[in-house]
Structures are given as structure tokens and as C-alpha cells.
Amino acid sequence: MTRLKLISTSDVHGYLYPTNYSSPADRRPYGWLRAATLIRQLQQADPDAVTLTLDLGDWIQGSSFASYLATQAPQQAPIYAKLLNALHYDASILGNHDFNYGLPYLRASQAGRDFPVLAANIAGAHDQDISDAPYQIFEQKGLKVAVLGLTTTYVPVWEVPSHIPGLNFQSAVATAQRWVSKLHDLADVVVVAYHGGFEADLKTGTPTERDTGEDEGFRLLTQVPGIDALLTGHQHRQIAGVYHGVPTTQPGDKAVAVGEITLEVVDHHVVSSSATLHSTAAAVPDPLMSAQTIALEHHVQDWLDQPIGKLTGASMAVTDHLAARLHGHPYLEFINRVEMMAGHADIAATALFNDDVLGLQATVTRRQLLNSYPYPNTLVVERITGQDLRAALERCASFFTVQPDGRVEVTPSFIHPKTQLYNYDVYDGIDYTFDLRQPVGHRLVRLRYHGDPVRADQELTIVMNQYRGHGGGQYPMFQANKIIREVNSDMAALVQNYFHDHPVVTGITPKNLTVHA
Q: What is the reported pTM?
């Protein structure tokens, strides 16, 4: 009998250090440096086992550390590959956010790696020198293990086209169906490493999201015979178990956990399996890895505390996130103001991405901005109809649910199985009212533009981030074929440019959104 151990991380998003960067002293129970300590222990725990360590993507974007490297010190990008090399990762997969800074930066982040990048369902990835092969076969102690790499097919829906030139993303399920049986002819064990999640309940198969192809994990489990282990990511969920006979993990985000699957193989066949997650909360950050990155971390902290502007008027600090979404907020009004100026549009929409958003203080620093707007989103301007706008606002109104005692809460589908607070937008340029006492789909009871009711056939221009502009978040009324212009600077840069032109910005309390409950 041979034991195979599969150790995995996913969706680290540049959170090497255990901090969310809200302050220099902030400390959190996550971070890849904590995970590194745990991974070393897992790698050494069973010397008789065959052990493979894999990263499932979304590695180079997300944290303030990642933003600093991409925008201020791109020559330091090879640190990512250097860290994975030092911890003896065996392979990695591309995540959707790994494309956010374009292919040259992605290549730079891979420079010097001594592990393969696997991309079976991205045509052209090898030609662009961002991947090595569809799969890799590892042979240790007489055991042959094939690892097939897959990435969510939905990348082109969100990503700026110039960031993915020459790439074509194909169905993960269709790709796996072509490869898995072939790989069983070449190896004893076939592992699928997928930067994607699950579109249905893992036990019952009940759909948990609209079937767009973004997440195909349940179909991988049930429609692709021969998968011996499935490693997943993308949804930031914490999953470990054996589902439909296949051991499966998903280790959350920011390295909150490390996934481990154990297979026992007899006569070239898997005879038993288990899956677990190991929390990194109690782990001490790895001292060797910390030594390689601490100088960069000091530069990041100094960079974050540089002031970029000043505020007067209504406070842009966010203290009650639900209230901000229900009634609008000066911070959201300001972001929409920047969008409208940059996009020269009639209407703007933006989201309060998560409940860690703190907004802006009287003296605005880069730290505050990147905490509140962490994504390198660029903007698109679309020409839409009044009917499109109504449909989008009804989707927004479905974000809320009213409890019997009158309390307004977030609708569970925006929280489970994956938290999606970023899929509710607050609008400026229009006046609108939601009546949450009405059925979903009939909650928009007032919609005016410049004081007049919006007609169904009325043409309007709206500016939003490219994720929403391509229909992301179940907004099919927004589509690429409606885009009339693009703003190719990311939002953090646009806000900094706005402060450069307006050193003192006045906060405005919006009054254009009314909610009845």
C-alpha cells in the first residue's frame, strides 16, 4: 500500500502577512506565512507517503502587499515564485485574478519558478509562456500521479480583453472528460486541480447559483468518471469531505486554511480516501519566509500611510454597512462621483464590497483607499435602456429580506454558500425607491432621472466596473456589446488622480435612494 497526500492552498490573494492592512498593527488569524509553517509540518509528517503540494491560483492580486508590488515594484514580482520554490510546491494553477495585471506581470511573477503551471482548458496559455502543460505526471516511490489543471471558464466575462490576448477559456467539465480517462492510462491516480467552485449543493445537487459556467465543480464530481481527488478554489469556501466518492477540498481565502487529501493506493487503485482542512490561525509565521519578505513589507506599510488628500463635509467613514447599503453613503457617493467624471456618463453604480470596508477619514491615506477599494477594477460605460436599468435595480432590491419583526437583513443567497456582498450596487444620477414589502422582482416603485420618470425605451449611459459591466454577479442586462467606451485606469488610480485635481473633497450625504420595509 502507498499513501498519497495532497496539500493545497488557494486564493491567497497576496495575503502573505497576517494582516488586512487596516492599520500597521493589525493582526489576523490567516496569511500565507502562517500557512507555510503548517505546510512544512504536513510535508514532513509522513516520510513514507508520497506528498504533493499544489497552489490553486489567485495568488498575485488582492492585498495591499500585492497592489504595491504590481504598481510600485513590479521588478520584485518574482518573489512569488521564489516563495513557492522555497516551500517545494510541486505545481500551480492559474486563477482568474492572476490575470488582473496583464500577461507581462503574470509572467514576471512566475520568473525563476521550478514547478510547472498547469492549464488544460486555456488554449494559448502555453504559447503565452504563462503555463507549461495541461497536466503533469509525478512519479515517486513507484506511484504515478497525474495532476490536471483547470481554471474557471468565466475569466473573459470579467477580465479586460487586453489582459488575456490570444487566450480562449474552455469548459472545465468538457476538458476533464477529454483528459481523465487518458490520464488513467498513464498514471495510477488522477487528481483534478480546479480554480473554480461548486454550482450545486455537494450532497443533493440542488443548484446554489445561476448556471453560467463560472463554477462546474459539482458536474466534475458527477459527470467525469475516474477523478480520484478534486482540489478546488475560487469561491473562498472551506470544504473538506468525500462527495460522490471523490475526496474534495477548498481551503478558503487569505490562507485561512490548508487543504489535505489522503489516498491509500493498493495495486494501482485507490482503496480509501479522506479530506480535511487545517486552520492556520494558531500557526506562527514561518521565520525563513518572513526573512525573505520583511523588507518589502516595511516598504508596503510606509507606502500605505502616505496621504493622498483631505476631506470636509459629511463623513466618509463607514461604520454601519447595512445602513450604507440601505440608504446610500457619502463614501459610495464619492466613488460614483469619480466614476461619472471619468466615464462621462449619466449614471454610476458601485458596491460596498465587503464588511471590512472602512471608508475614508479626514486625511485620506492610500491605506484607507486600498482597504475600501481593493480590486484593480477598470471602468466601462454602457448605453442601456430604462428597462435594463429597472432590471438591474430589481436585482439590487433582491439583496434585502425583511424579517417578521421588521428587521432588514441580507438575503441568504448573497451570503451562502459564498459571500457575495459585492453584488449589490448603490446608484447615483437617478432617484429611486425600493419597497421591500413587495415581492422580489416588483420592489422598484419609483425611478426618476433628472426629475422625470424613466421610460422603458429611454436610452441612458451608465459607468461601472468591468466585472459588473460584463454581467458579473447575475446582471445579464449589462453586456459587452453595450459598451461604448472604456476607462483603462484602475479605480485606485482614478481616485488618486481626483484628489490630485481636488486636494480637498467635500463629502455629500446622498438622498436619492429610499427604502421602505
A: 0.94
